[in-house]
Every structure is written in structure tokens, then in C-alpha cells.
């Protein structure tokens, strides 16, 4: 699942022979869901009622993968699914989505977002400051791929929404694939005294952080 070093890995790759492939599959296809899985599904889906979707499992699988491709992994409506997939929403709580991570999910995704905006500032010559994580989606396969949406503010105290993709293959260093402004936003800062936020350009390489490694318990 390592990201490419020759181009920005924005688009979702669906070729199963490509190590960067992200395709949602059923979780626990041949067994019962654990209590933890049932709680996760309930958190994502909410309470079912007569208006809840009643798609077949295959229709749900097609729908979630369509949403993943269209949003490049960042915007998926998990309330539409009764099945649990290996692509799911992470919640910013004092729990851990993986036993190999020592931090709580709240701490972990905040740290990744702060690292992502620091890398973005270095690359683009900007001075954004991290504010908060809005949401994070997780793809779990031979490790994890994180799709993090977070808020940062510019020198004029105007907030912008960012998207960061982070790859965490088991027993390897965490790799920041890319960080970008969420498409469709203006980025100029009008107050020259506070500094001008430059218009972002495409990142042409992935960024491995040698100082960040997975903590294995």
C-alpha cells in the first residue's frame, strides 16, 4: 500500500494487483461481528427505522466503493450501510482503532493532521495553523490508509478545510501521501500585514517522515 513517489496519489486505485489499491470489502464475511464491530456499525449508521436503506449486501458494496472513488476516500455516507466493511469511519474518542497504536484515536488523528499541515506549510511557503480534525476514514488491509479531513487557519484567522492521506503499513514508518486544501476554496489572505497565503500547487512527491514510526505494543 505504499504510495507512489512519482505522482500525487489523489485518485483511488482499484486494481487488486496494485499495492496502493483501495477497494472496500466485507468485514468478517464468514463469521459473526464482534461486539466492538457492532458498536462501530451502530455509531456510523445510527438508529434504523422505516426510512433506512434496504439495499442488498452487494448493492451496498457497490455504493460504498462508488462513494470512495468519487470523493477520493474523504466523503462517504456511512448511514446508508447495514454491512460493515474494511473501509469505515474513525471516531475521535479516547479509544484505539488498532492495538499497534499507543495513542487514543483522538490524539492519533490530531497528530497526523498537525504533521500534514506542517509539511504543507514547508512545501507551499504558507503559515496555516491546525485547528481541529473534522473526520477521518480508515481503510484496513495490510496496514491502514487514513483519509483525514481537518480545519486550519491562515494568518488572517480565516479557517480552511484540508484533506490529508496517510499510509501506515504494519511495522513501517508512517508516510504522508499528500495534504491539500479541500477543492473549491479560495485561499488568498487580503491583509498584507499578516502575511499572504500563497496559492497551493500540486505536490509531486510523497513525504515519508523518518521521525515517526508505528508504536508496537
Write up what this structure looks like.
The chain is an alpha+beta fold and 217 residues long. Among the domains are: 35-85, no CATH class; 105-181, Roll (Nuclear Transport Factor 2, Chain: A), CATH 3.10.450. The chain has helices at residues 35-45, 57-71, 105-124, and strands at residues 87-90, 129-140, 143-153, 159-169, 173-181, 207-213. Strands 1-2-3-4-5-6 form a six-stranded antiparallel beta sheet.
The low-confidence runs, each spanning 5 or more residues with pLDDT under 50, are 1-6, 192-196, 202-206, 210-217
Structural class: alpha+beta
What is the share of helical residues? Answer: 10-25%
CATH architecture group name of the domain at 105-181: Roll
Shape assignment = globular
Distance N to C terminus: 22 Å
The CATH C-level name of the domain at 105-181 is Alpha Beta
How much strand content do the residues show? 15-25%
Q: If you average the pLDDT, what whole number results?
A: 80
Largest sheet: 6 strands, antiparallel
Instruction: Please tell me how large the radius of gyration is.
Output: 18 Å
Helix/strand order, N-terminal first: HHEHEEEEE
Number of helices: 3
CATH topology of the domain at 105-181: Nuclear Transport Factor 2, Chain: A
Spatial order of strands in the largest sheet: 1-2-3-4-5-6
Amino acid at each position: 500500500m505504499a504510495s507512489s513517489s512519482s505522482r500525487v496519489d489523489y485518485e483511488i486505485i482499484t486494481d487488486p494487483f496494485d499495492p496502493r489499491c483501495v477497494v472496500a470489502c466485507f468485514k468478517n464475511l464468514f463469521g459473526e461481528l464482534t461486539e466492538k464491530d457492532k458498536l462501530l456499525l451502530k455509531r456510523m449508521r445510527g438508529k434504523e427505522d422505516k426510512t433506512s436503506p434496504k439495499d442488498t449486501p452487494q448493492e451496498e458494496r457497490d455504493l460504498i466503493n462508488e462513494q470512495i472513488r468519487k470523493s477520493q476516500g474523504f466523503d462517504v455516507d456511512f448511514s446508508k450501510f447495514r454491512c460493515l466493511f474494511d473501509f469505515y469511519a474513525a471516531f475521535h474518542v479516547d479509544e484505539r482503532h488498532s492495538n499497534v497504536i499507543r495513542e487514543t484515536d483522538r490524539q492519533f488523528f490530531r497528530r497526523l493532521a498537525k504533521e500534514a499541515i506542517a509539511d504543507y506549510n514547508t512545501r507551499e511557503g504558507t503559515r496555516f495553523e491546525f485547528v481541529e480534525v473534522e473526520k477521518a476514514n480508515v481503510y484496513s488491509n495490510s496496514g491502514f490508509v487514513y483519509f483525514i479531513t481537518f480545519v486550519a487557519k491562515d494568518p488572517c484567522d480565516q479557517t480552511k478545510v484540508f484533506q490529508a492521506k496517510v499510509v501506515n503499513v504494519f511495522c513501517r514508518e508512517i508516510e504522508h501521501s499528500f495534504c491539500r486544501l479541500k477543492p473549491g476554496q479560495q485561499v488568498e489572505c487580503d491583509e498584507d500585514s499578516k502575511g499572504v497565503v500563497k496559492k497551493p500547487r500540486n505536490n509531486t512527491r510523497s513525504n515519508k517522515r523518518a521521525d515517526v514510526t508505528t508504536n508496537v505494543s
